[in-house]
Amino acid sequence: MTILGSGSEGNALLLESLATTVLVDAGLSYRMLVQRFAAIGRAAPNDVSAVLVTHSHSDHAANASTYAARFDCPVRATEVTARGMRLRASTRVETFSAGRAFRIGDISIRTRAIPHDAPQVALLFETRVTSVGLVTDLGHVPEGLGRFLSECETLLLESNHDPDMLATGPYPAVLKRRVGGSLGHLSNAQASDLLASLDHAPREVVLMHLSETNNCPLLARSSAEAALGDRGTKLRLAKQRQPIEVGAVHESQLQLGL
Protein backbone atom coordinates (compact mmCIF):
# COMPACT_ATOMS: atom_id res chain seq x y z
CA MET A 1 0.00 0.00 0.00
CA THR A 2 1.01 3.61 -0.43
CA ILE A 3 -0.65 6.21 1.80
CA LEU A 4 -0.24 9.52 0.00
CA GLY A 5 -1.16 11.73 2.93
CA SER A 6 -2.98 11.30 6.23
CA GLY A 7 -3.88 14.16 8.51
CA SER A 8 -5.76 17.44 8.78
CA GLU A 9 -3.88 18.97 5.81
CA GLY A 10 -5.26 16.40 3.37
CA ASN A 11 -5.99 12.70 2.94
CA ALA A 12 -5.70 10.38 -0.05
CA LEU A 13 -4.78 6.79 -0.67
CA LEU A 14 -4.69 4.55 -3.69
CA LEU A 15 -5.99 1.00 -3.59
CA GLU A 16 -4.93 -1.33 -6.40
CA SER A 17 -5.97 -4.89 -7.14
CA LEU A 18 -4.88 -6.80 -10.22
CA ALA A 19 -7.83 -5.39 -12.17
CA THR A 20 -9.07 -2.29 -10.34
CA THR A 21 -7.66 0.98 -9.02
CA VAL A 22 -9.60 3.11 -6.54
CA LEU A 23 -8.57 6.46 -5.13
CA VAL A 24 -9.96 6.81 -1.61
CA ASP A 25 -10.46 10.40 -0.48
CA ALA A 26 -9.40 13.52 -2.33
CA GLY A 27 -7.95 15.96 0.15
CA LEU A 28 -4.67 16.54 -1.71
CA SER A 29 -4.33 18.69 -4.82
CA TYR A 30 -3.58 16.86 -8.05
CA ARG A 31 -0.13 18.46 -8.22
CA MET A 32 0.58 17.21 -4.71
CA LEU A 33 -0.67 13.78 -5.70
CA VAL A 34 1.83 13.69 -8.57
CA GLN A 35 4.62 14.80 -6.24
CA ARG A 36 3.82 12.12 -3.68
CA PHE A 37 3.93 9.39 -6.31
CA ALA A 38 7.21 10.78 -7.64
CA ALA A 39 8.64 10.55 -4.12
CA ILE A 40 8.22 6.77 -4.22
CA GLY A 41 9.43 6.46 -7.81
CA ARG A 42 6.05 6.11 -9.46
CA ALA A 43 4.03 8.06 -11.98
CA ALA A 44 0.54 9.10 -10.97
CA PRO A 45 -2.04 6.55 -12.09
CA ASN A 46 -4.15 7.14 -15.17
CA ASP A 47 -6.59 4.22 -14.93
CA VAL A 48 -8.53 5.00 -11.75
CA SER A 49 -11.94 3.30 -11.66
CA ALA A 50 -13.51 5.61 -9.07
CA VAL A 51 -12.82 8.33 -6.52
CA LEU A 52 -14.36 7.05 -3.30
CA VAL A 53 -14.99 9.75 -0.67
CA THR A 54 -15.58 8.78 2.95
CA HIS A 55 -17.13 12.09 4.08
CA SER A 56 -17.54 15.69 3.01
CA HIS A 57 -14.91 17.51 5.10
CA SER A 58 -12.48 19.35 2.86
CA ASP A 59 -9.39 17.42 3.98
CA HIS A 60 -11.03 14.34 2.46
CA ALA A 61 -13.19 15.75 -0.34
CA ALA A 62 -11.93 19.10 -1.65
CA ASN A 63 -10.44 17.83 -4.91
CA ALA A 64 -12.92 15.08 -5.81
CA SER A 65 -14.18 16.80 -8.96
CA THR A 66 -10.62 17.50 -10.13
CA TYR A 67 -9.65 13.86 -9.71
CA ALA A 68 -12.82 12.62 -11.37
CA ALA A 69 -12.14 14.85 -14.39
CA ARG A 70 -8.45 13.88 -14.57
CA PHE A 71 -9.22 10.17 -14.40
CA ASP A 72 -12.53 10.26 -16.30
CA CYS A 73 -14.24 8.31 -13.55
CA PRO A 74 -17.16 8.75 -11.15
CA VAL A 75 -17.13 10.00 -7.58
CA ARG A 76 -18.58 7.38 -5.22
CA ALA A 77 -20.05 8.57 -1.90
CA THR A 78 -23.15 8.24 0.21
CA GLU A 79 -25.99 10.47 -0.90
CA VAL A 80 -25.65 12.77 2.11
CA THR A 81 -21.89 13.08 1.58
CA ALA A 82 -22.36 13.84 -2.11
CA ARG A 83 -24.81 16.61 -1.21
CA GLY A 84 -22.32 18.11 1.22
CA MET A 85 -19.44 18.24 -1.26
CA ARG A 86 -18.64 21.06 -3.66
CA LEU A 87 -18.79 19.15 -6.92
CA ARG A 88 -18.80 20.56 -10.42
CA ALA A 89 -22.01 20.11 -12.37
CA SER A 90 -20.14 17.91 -14.83
CA THR A 91 -18.95 15.45 -12.16
CA ARG A 92 -20.51 12.01 -12.43
CA VAL A 93 -21.67 10.84 -9.01
CA GLU A 94 -22.63 7.31 -8.03
CA THR A 95 -24.01 6.92 -4.52
CA PHE A 96 -24.08 4.01 -2.10
CA SER A 97 -25.88 3.48 1.20
CA ALA A 98 -24.02 3.19 4.49
CA GLY A 99 -24.44 -0.35 5.77
CA ARG A 100 -24.72 -1.82 2.28
CA ALA A 101 -21.98 -3.53 0.28
CA PHE A 102 -21.11 -2.71 -3.33
CA ARG A 103 -18.38 -3.50 -5.82
CA ILE A 104 -15.89 -1.54 -7.86
CA GLY A 105 -14.38 -3.93 -10.38
CA ASP A 106 -12.99 -6.94 -8.54
CA ILE A 107 -13.00 -5.19 -5.14
CA SER A 108 -15.97 -5.75 -2.83
CA ILE A 109 -16.57 -2.89 -0.41
CA ARG A 110 -18.50 -3.26 2.83
CA THR A 111 -19.55 -0.11 4.66
CA ARG A 112 -20.92 0.98 8.01
CA ALA A 113 -21.73 4.36 9.49
CA ILE A 114 -19.41 5.65 12.21
CA PRO A 115 -19.86 8.67 14.53
CA HIS A 116 -18.37 11.94 13.29
CA ASP A 117 -19.62 15.52 12.93
CA ALA A 118 -20.18 14.86 9.24
CA PRO A 119 -21.80 11.63 8.04
CA GLN A 120 -18.89 9.18 7.82
CA VAL A 121 -18.33 5.54 6.91
CA ALA A 122 -15.85 2.84 7.79
CA LEU A 123 -14.84 0.79 4.76
CA LEU A 124 -13.78 -2.82 4.40
CA PHE A 125 -12.20 -3.68 1.03
CA GLU A 126 -12.17 -7.36 0.11
CA THR A 127 -10.83 -9.43 -2.77
CA ARG A 128 -10.31 -13.16 -3.20
CA VAL A 129 -7.02 -13.00 -1.33
CA THR A 130 -7.08 -10.22 1.28
CA SER A 131 -9.07 -7.59 3.12
CA VAL A 132 -8.29 -4.05 4.26
CA GLY A 133 -10.20 -1.98 6.80
CA LEU A 134 -10.18 1.83 6.79
CA VAL A 135 -11.48 3.57 9.92
CA THR A 136 -10.73 7.26 10.47
CA ASP A 137 -12.59 10.37 11.60
CA LEU A 138 -14.78 9.03 14.37
CA GLY A 139 -15.28 10.32 17.88
CA HIS A 140 -15.86 6.99 19.62
CA VAL A 141 -15.94 3.30 18.80
CA PRO A 142 -19.56 2.24 18.21
CA GLU A 143 -20.86 -1.15 19.20
CA GLY A 144 -20.17 -3.75 16.52
CA LEU A 145 -17.25 -2.00 14.85
CA GLY A 146 -14.84 -4.63 16.17
CA ARG A 147 -16.95 -7.37 14.57
CA PHE A 148 -17.01 -5.43 11.31
CA LEU A 149 -13.20 -5.42 11.29
CA SER A 150 -12.66 -8.85 12.81
CA GLU A 151 -11.27 -10.56 9.72
CA CYS A 152 -9.32 -7.77 8.01
CA GLU A 153 -5.67 -8.56 7.32
CA THR A 154 -4.62 -4.90 7.20
CA LEU A 155 -6.23 -2.20 9.31
CA LEU A 156 -5.82 1.53 8.76
CA LEU A 157 -7.01 3.06 12.03
CA GLU A 158 -7.19 6.61 13.32
CA SER A 159 -5.05 7.43 16.37
CA ASN A 160 -5.51 11.18 16.29
CA HIS A 161 -4.60 12.67 19.65
CA ASP A 162 -3.32 12.30 23.17
CA PRO A 163 -5.97 13.72 25.54
CA ASP A 164 -3.42 15.41 27.79
CA MET A 165 -1.70 17.09 24.85
CA LEU A 166 -5.07 18.18 23.51
CA ALA A 167 -6.13 19.60 26.89
CA THR A 168 -2.93 21.61 27.38
CA GLY A 169 -2.33 22.48 23.73
CA PRO A 170 -2.97 25.67 21.76
CA TYR A 171 -6.38 24.86 20.28
CA PRO A 172 -9.26 27.11 21.38
CA ALA A 173 -11.68 25.51 23.82
CA VAL A 174 -14.42 24.98 21.24
CA LEU A 175 -12.05 23.07 18.96
CA LYS A 176 -10.72 21.00 21.85
CA ARG A 177 -14.28 19.97 22.66
CA ARG A 178 -14.91 19.09 19.03
CA VAL A 179 -11.77 16.98 18.58
CA GLY A 180 -12.13 15.19 21.90
CA GLY A 181 -15.90 14.80 21.76
CA SER A 182 -18.00 11.81 20.81
CA LEU A 183 -18.29 13.07 17.21
CA GLY A 184 -14.66 14.12 16.86
CA HIS A 185 -11.55 11.97 16.49
CA LEU A 186 -10.19 8.86 18.19
CA SER A 187 -7.55 9.28 20.86
CA ASN A 188 -4.59 6.94 21.14
CA ALA A 189 -6.30 5.14 24.01
CA GLN A 190 -9.56 4.68 22.10
CA ALA A 191 -7.71 3.29 19.09
CA SER A 192 -5.75 0.94 21.31
CA ASP A 193 -8.89 -0.28 23.08
CA LEU A 194 -10.34 -1.19 19.67
CA LEU A 195 -7.15 -3.02 18.70
CA ALA A 196 -7.14 -4.95 21.97
CA SER A 197 -10.78 -5.99 21.47
CA LEU A 198 -10.24 -7.61 18.06
CA ASP A 199 -10.57 -11.39 18.16
CA HIS A 200 -8.32 -11.68 15.11
CA ALA A 201 -5.16 -9.57 15.11
CA PRO A 202 -4.48 -7.99 11.70
CA ARG A 203 -1.21 -8.80 10.01
CA GLU A 204 -0.53 -5.10 9.73
CA VAL A 205 -1.90 -1.98 11.40
CA VAL A 206 -1.26 1.54 10.18
CA LEU A 207 -2.07 4.38 12.58
CA MET A 208 -3.74 7.19 10.65
CA HIS A 209 -4.63 10.87 10.98
CA LEU A 210 -2.13 11.64 13.77
CA SER A 211 -2.41 15.25 14.90
CA GLU A 212 0.83 17.17 14.54
CA THR A 213 -0.28 19.48 17.37
CA ASN A 214 -1.98 17.15 19.85
CA ASN A 215 -0.07 13.89 19.45
CA CYS A 216 3.38 12.51 18.93
CA PRO A 217 4.39 9.34 17.06
CA LEU A 218 6.05 7.78 20.11
CA LEU A 219 2.90 8.05 22.22
CA ALA A 220 0.67 6.66 19.46
CA ARG A 221 3.04 3.79 18.74
CA SER A 222 3.56 2.88 22.39
CA SER A 223 -0.16 2.79 23.06
CA ALA A 224 -0.88 0.59 20.04
CA GLU A 225 2.02 -1.74 20.76
CA ALA A 226 0.75 -2.31 24.29
CA ALA A 227 -2.69 -3.18 22.92
CA LEU A 228 -1.39 -5.54 20.25
CA GLY A 229 0.99 -7.34 22.57
CA ASP A 230 2.88 -10.25 21.09
CA ARG A 231 0.34 -11.17 18.42
CA GLY A 232 2.82 -10.60 15.61
CA THR A 233 1.16 -7.57 14.03
CA LYS A 234 3.36 -5.22 12.05
CA LEU A 235 2.74 -1.64 13.15
CA ARG A 236 3.39 1.47 11.06
CA LEU A 237 2.44 5.15 11.25
CA ALA A 238 1.08 7.13 8.33
CA LYS A 239 2.44 10.61 7.72
CA GLN A 240 0.98 13.86 6.48
CA ARG A 241 3.64 14.79 3.95
CA GLN A 242 5.55 11.59 3.22
CA PRO A 243 3.92 8.74 1.28
CA ILE A 244 4.40 5.21 2.52
CA GLU A 245 3.71 1.93 0.77
CA VAL A 246 1.91 -0.61 2.90
CA GLY A 247 0.90 -4.21 2.36
CA ALA A 248 2.35 -4.76 -1.12
CA VAL A 249 2.12 -8.45 -2.01
CA HIS A 250 3.08 -10.72 -4.89
CA GLU A 251 1.65 -10.09 -8.35
CA SER A 252 -0.71 -13.04 -7.97
CA GLN A 253 -2.31 -11.32 -4.98
CA LEU A 254 -3.90 -8.00 -4.22
CA GLN A 255 -1.54 -5.05 -4.38
CA LEU A 256 -2.37 -2.06 -2.23
CA GLY A 257 -1.00 1.37 -3.03
CA LEU A 258 -1.95 3.77 -0.28
Which short descriptors sum up this protein?
single chain, 258 residues, alpha/beta, Metallo-beta-lactamase, Chain A, 7-stranded mixed β-sheet, 9 helices, 14 strands, disordered C terminus
Provide the fold topology.
Layout lengths: L1 E4 L6 E5 L4 E4 L5 H10 L10 E3 L5 H4 L2 H8 L3 E4 H6 L8 E4 L5 E3 L2 E8 L5 E7 L4 E5 L9 H4 L5 E5 L4 H6 L4 H8 L7 H10 L6 E5 L8 H12 L5 E4 L6 E2 L13
Parallel strand pairs: 3-4, 4-5, 5-6, 10-11, 11-12, 12-13
Antiparallel strand pairs: 1-2, 1-14, 2-3, 7-8, 8-9, 9-10
Quick description:
By secondary structure, the chain is α/β, with parallel strands linked by helices. It has one domain: 4-Layer Sandwich (Metallo-beta-lactamase, Chain A), CATH 3.60.15. The chain contains nine helices and 14 strands.
Task: Provide the number of structural domains.
Answer: 1
Continuous helix count: 9
| CATH hierarchy class name | Alpha Beta
- The CATH homologous superfamily name equals Ribonuclease Z/Hydroxyacylglutathione hydrolase-like
Low-pLDDT runs of 5+ residues are: 250-258
Oligomer: single chain
| Main beta-sheet annotation | 7 strands, mixed
